[in-house]
Amino acid sequence: MKILAIETSCDETAICILECAGKMPQPQFKVLGNALVSQIHIHKEYGGVYPMLAKREHIKNLPIVLKAALKEAGESAENPNIDMIAVTAGPGLEPALWTGIEFAKGLGEKWGKPVVPINHMEGHLWSVLFNNDKPIEFPAIALLVSGGHTELVHVEGFDKFNIIGRTRDDAVGEAFDKVARLLDLPYPGGPKISAMAEIARKRESIMDFRFPRPMLNTDNYDFSYSGLKTSVLYTTRKLDKLDEDTKAEIAREFEEAAIEPLIEKTTRAIDEFGARTLIVGGGVSANAYLREKLSTLSLERGVDLRLPSPELTTDNAVMIAIAAYVRHLTHGLTPSEDIRARGNLPLS
Prior knowledge:
Layout: E1 2-7, E2 12-21, E3 28-38, H1 40-43, H2 51-73, E4 84-90, H3 94-111, E5 115-119, H4 120-126, E6 140-145, E7 150-157, E8 160-166, H5 172-182, H6 189-203, H7 226-238, H8 244-273, E9 277-281, H9 288-301, E10 304-306, H10 317-330
Parallel strand pairs: 1-4, 4-5, 6-9, 9-10
Antiparallel strand pairs: 1-2, 2-3, 6-7, 7-8
Helix pairs in contact: 2-3, 4-10, 5-6, 5-7, 5-8, 6-8, 8-9
């Protein structure tokens, strides 16, 4: 089966053509064509993604990205050899989502191909199936961490999963970006915070800062990051100056404060649900310190750690095609002419 997938949930315009084969629990995937245009350089001056500007750029970029993906796959733009079109319907920025949906509908009508809506978070969840060398053992716990989401998911199978915990305010990736702005670091701030934190960690200096670990000991699996961000804000206001060494120390303490609740609650979830596998997805899954802690956790608890390849940690169309194929095998996919953009579409 060949799936053309479209992803426009935020500030990446992405289209891929994926060849999918095999059955559960070990499907196989081959990228035939893949193209992506990032808008980071445009949104930098806003310190985050400006939705209507993202929409405008998606409208401009979609035809260009499609042409590149089709060319790489050796497919005709008039009648490509594909079986379906998968498009992200949510969650995400609704103006951005609508551009992808309308573009997919137009292609479906032009080519006579079915168009199916896909949940963006299912894409992150099943991105670990790419280059999958062995089947996932269930039950599993999935930690989905990005700029827009922080969720713990109990995964009983490819067709049965539910959220057991989520952030009550800011997502962890969002907190990284906001703290980066407080330290006058450029957007996107997550990689900059991580790099500075590692510099401070290598110095092995004694930190003068101690930030709260939000909701670390609550008897649930929820998270909160707005208070941590505020604590960093108050700390920076008290300082006479923010030199590079001080920024590095703040970055280190913030990163450790942000990640400790993720590890603690993921550990508890693994124990409670008897998980055999730990799945991690989303942009923050690329964070080196988080990966180190997750690796230690997997060894201590004897669970199989599944992380996406680096190119699939951020928003991309490959994961949308993978999620579409998983849906096809487990539920069957029903084409829809009434696909709606749902900014708060839940994972279900």
